[in-house]
Amino acid sequence: MKNLSPSLFSRSARALACAACLLLPLGAAHAERLKDLASVQGVRENQLIGYGLVVGLDGSGDQTTQTPFTVQSVVSMLKQMGINMPAGINMQLKNVAAVMVTTSLPAFAQPGQTLDITVSSMGNAKSLRGGTLLMTPLKGADGQIYGMAQGNVVVGGAGAAANGSKAQINHLSVGRISAGATVERAVPTALGQGDTIFLELKESDFSTASRVVDAVNARFGPQTAAAQDGRVIRVRAPLSNDERVSFLGALESINVTPAQVRAKVIMNARTGSVVMNQAVTLDACAVSHGNLSVVINTQPVISQPAPFSGGQTVVTQQSQIEINRDPGKVVLLKNSASLADVVKALNSIGATPQDLLAILQAMKASGSLRAELEII
């Protein structure tokens, strides 16, 4: 028997109530460090990527008949080492896997520093556990080599298979190598132009930008900072590198009270999750909501042949389908000026998380939900 009735009201109520409890303390604005609100323009990470081979696997590597690029890579590597393979040879490799190596080159990284790297299988290898990554060049978006990677792959999972049975814990085709890459080339990073640096807010907001300008000018004097728009703030800084670094250290430590965020509701259409921030309010509206349930009851029906007739017993399945529709009711939702009131109003409807997606969209269309809807 399968019951498809949406009886998740209690879970929906608990989830929304917990969300309200977690978000209620955020109502009072609090100061944050400037380094948490903004970053210095030009100070950024750069993604690196490389193609390499992992060897030493215990028979869990790529199936070379289905991944010919693995064989080509091995032949090319051996050729560079002075070993020429005969043409047309069919190599059966079980202990080699083709992988992609990725990492991020942080700002101000210098040659000789080490980076953590992620090794991901790109073929059909069963596991990278116990493998060793061979020397792999890591390139940037400009095609230049900025690092070299090599080392033993650490996989956080485990698995076993025998006689058709298989058991696995976590992921086996992705691993990490701590300090597995060495920086070979530095990326020049300019801290501003002349006596000016630029701060970029992580979230564009004119009110927060204005507050940052006021806080910086109060700390370092008038005319030190000026906002160019809702995201970029121009700051006058010392010309000397030593003084500029000290200035940036003091600048990042300034406490700024950010402006209240925009009212926003995030809805996940795949999981039915609904998250809203403290600024969400609700105008008076009426909502009609009803439940629809489908009950499927399947029972076996056995047809027994007569004695000595030579027939066979036949088993069939007979299903009974019943659809129940609860009468809808109209619920009046009053004005709600706080998140707790909004959660209480939505819980009073008795809707499941999936139903809330449609109800909130209808509220937004009617103009009663004062928030921006974002579906992910």
Automatic annotation (TrEMBL):
GO BP, one example? bacterial-type flagellum-dependent cell motility
Which Pfam families does UniProt cross-reference here? FlgI
Keywords of the record, alphabetical order, are:
Bacterial flagellum, Cell projection, Cilium, Flagellum, Signal
GO cellular component annotations of the record: bacterial-type flagellum basal body, distal rod, P ring; outer membrane-bounded periplasmic space
Single Gene Ontology MF annotation: structural molecule activity
Signal peptide region: 1-31
Q: Where in the cell is it found?
A: Bacterial flagellum basal body
Assembly, per entry: The basal body constitutes a major portion of the flagellar organelle and consists of four rings (L,P,S, and M) mounted on a central rod.
Q: Report the family membership.
A: Belongs to the FlgI family.
State the protein's purpose. Answer: Assembles around the rod to form the L-ring and probably protects the motor/basal body from shearing forces during rotation.
Identify this protein by name: Flagellar P-ring protein
This protein's species is: Oxalicibacterium flavum
Name the gene behind this protein: flgI
